[in-house]
Amino acid sequence: MDRSLIGDLAHTDHPIASPLDDDTVDALLRRALAGQRSVLDLGCGDGTWLLRALRLNRGLHPELHAVGVDLSGAGFERTRTAADAEGLGDRLELHVADAAMWSTDERFDVVLSIGAAHAFGGLVPAVEAAASHLQPGGRLLVGECFWEQPPNDAALGALGASADDYANLASTVEAVRSAGWEPLHAHVSSLQEWDAYEWSWTGSLTRWALEHPDDPSSAEVLTVAAEHRAAWLGGYRGTLGFVTLLLGDGGP
């Protein structure tokens, strides 16, 4: 099975593809979008962040325009269908494209890039790419991993990572400040949020495989779930953190 489809299946019960609970997502969107008219999500997954944004702003800012870009496009039709059913489809655009290469003349009040820094070559390049689509005075909402504690060999092996792939939290924040952006707010995902996300990720795949034993991809999907669960529980649990930062332009 195509890995983008496996990823879409893994997020069946947790469509926010990051270790964030529903209340946190809503709170972050309310802060970021207060009084704003347009939002872009680079590396948007299935577009769930944007659909949530439109729902939250249905009454307060019914003119909100939401645009998403993702290379896979997995789940786009599902999200478009949901948006249409809720009367939001005319305010949602989803584009299948490389978020790092996509261009438009439109500039946005808010740009999101949550858990997609790898597509840009790291956090600072992701911030710079997001900023290139931003209106003057706009806001960025970015989410990225960091080391909660120095990673041991088990964590690095489980992630297929090196110790310099991420920094600690303080250094992560200083990196975006050095790039000219100041934190207006942040949320550090709790271990409970990580656990809920990982159990959902592996559980959704396991359930699908058990419910489709005759599907040619069933064994592969079950293996992916088991390998991911082992890497998390036996490797990076409690070591890999995640921070979501709301940023304002710090000027020169």
Automatic annotation (TrEMBL):
GO molecular function list: methyltransferase activity
Q: Which UniProt keywords apply?
A: Methyltransferase, Transferase
In which organism is this protein found?
A: Quadrisphaera granulorum
Q: Which residues form a coiled coil?
A: none
What is this protein called in UniProt? Methyltransferase family protein
Q: Per its UniProt record, what InterPro entries does this chain match?
A: CFA/CMAS, Methyltransf_25, SAM-dependent_MTases_sf
CDD domains (alphabetical): AdoMet_MTases (cd02440)
Which BP terms from GO are recorded? methylation
